[in-house]
Amino acid sequence: MVVKAPAKINLGLAVLKRRSDGYHDLLSIMQQVSLADTLTIEPVRGAGLSFSCSDPSLNGEDNLVCRAAALLAAQTRKALPGVKIDLYKNIPVEAGLGGGSSDAAAALSALNRYWRLDLTAQTLGELGSRLGSDIPFCLQGGTALASGRGEVLQPLPGLSFFWVVLAVPAGLGLSTASVFRALNLEGAPRPPIRRLIAAVQRESREEIVNWLEERHTNSLEAGVVAAYPRLMALKKRMRELGLVPVMSGSGPTFFALTGGARLAGNAVRILRDEGYRAYLCWTERSTR
Length: 288
Ligand code: C5P
Known about the structure:
Layout: E1 2-18, E2 24-43, E3 49-53, H1 64-73, E4 83-88, H2 99-114, H3 121-131, H4 135-140, E5 143-147, E6 152-155, E7 163-169, H5 176-182, H6 193-201, H7 205-212, H8 221-227, H9 229-240, E8 246-247, E9 254-258, H10 261-273, E10 276-282
Parallel strand pairs: 3-4
Antiparallel strand pairs: 1-2, 2-4, 2-5, 5-6, 7-9, 7-10, 8-9
Helix pairs in contact: 1-2, 2-3, 6-7, 8-9
The structure holds cytidine-5'-monophosphate.
Cytidine-5'-monophosphate is lined by residues 22-24, 26, 132-134, 149-150, 176-177, 180.
């Protein structure tokens, strides 16, 4: 089996409060995009999992793919056939794009089929949420309103097609935990997500684009940009290229939606020439 594990962006993200379990309640519209990792799943003799990753730094047993496989295997007493999983990474790591979460989601649903476990989508979602807050969304895809710590999902009408420019300074990765730890919640802005929800429900491209031009679209952005001035330069550059840059998740990736293929393509080429990791992809609808 060859399965894709697509990235996600957060069209808006409001952090509401710190919880007693160490997580934060949030409200966010999550959107799947076409940039994707690839998992190749092959039968092997005997039992157990053999795993390898194109990025050697992600090659260990603590990779979310291995943890997803172990969690799934623990759901059954059946002897499970051996499996080899190769993960080819395209999505930047620690970038706010849900790459690791999507790899785990792809492993959960592919192994559920390969091992014929017949677990329901709801059970897979519950298992996924134990491994990471974004995994239930990655299992579902498309466009959704995420609440709780990110694992409570409400479907929204699929966003119509937009080109998506993604850009991140080369070599800059941020752990989600450290970004939340550094957050000064009292001083952080709370973006008006309800208006974005209404725009997505009305399927109004104009209102969505206008909302993304809000001064604050992500409660985590100001703290991250203040800590990494390179991101201020990236934002400025994206604006000069005619884009409206918005931070995804806990960063540091900035994305921009546009209907203009040439504008998006030119921007990606220029950003790459200037040393950024930049990608041209598009919004995806759920295939489930
Ligand atoms: O759920 P996940 O494992 O991806 O989260 C990583 C870390 O990010 C958590 O351990 C927590 O510190 C922080 N986090 C948070 N609130 C959320 C999601 C993540 O504080 N809603």
